[in-house]
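DM from R.C. (forwarded with permission)

"hey, sorry to bug you on a friday — could you get me a structure for this? deadline for the figure draft is monday and I only need the backbone to look sensible"
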Amino acid sequence: MKHFSRQQVATAIAILFHSIGLIGILFFNSSLIIAATPLNLLLSFGLIIYTQENKHLPFWIFFIACFVVGIGVEIVGTATGWLFGEYQYGSVLGPGINEVPFIIGVNWFIIIYCCGTCIHMLLSEATKKLSEQTGKSVKAIKALSVVIDGATLAVFFDWIMEPVAVKLGYWEWLGDGEIPFYNYVCWFLVSIFLLFIFHNLPFEKQNKFAVNLLLIQAMFFLLLRTFL
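My reply, with the result:
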């Protein structure tokens, strides 16, 4: 009997649940499916934990940092408009604090972790070969690339997600309802800060499932953005 790896099992589960969500939203306009978004995000979080190797203290410190910073900047953003712009959350994403759903902190972790892991894995082999060829360490280049490229990837993911999130009632932009460019600037800056923490904390950053999950979620939102 064929043995499936944790990454394969987790990827299959993620594809199944995102497919159910996609079909339910596109063809049945199911409010029940939309309301289950927090459960889907918790499932994704659980699958990351399931596939993460060596879940030592630094990994949990990174999770806490993403959760606390994510919730914190969103509270400032919704209360003042100083970050991201003028917006407010709907009731779809569940309970929270100061009108910011708790699941948003988990979502910040998922996005930053997946984007950081993608860039880290992409660069690991390339920087190793470059170091062997030049005989010089390229750690500084890799660090800069993980932070900057990872933040750029996170902003691109947010760009794909934003119009869909508004249509599904996750949150709404006030004023003229347009998504401000300032939102993406803030996303980039906050992502840089969190990815700096990601790069410098000593925990295992090789996780193929994280790459798969980012692709699955990006395709999910891209299809909804196109056909919803």
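R.C.: lifesaver. Residues 143 and 199 are 7 Å apart (CA to CA).
me: no worries. The chain has a mean pLDDT of 93.
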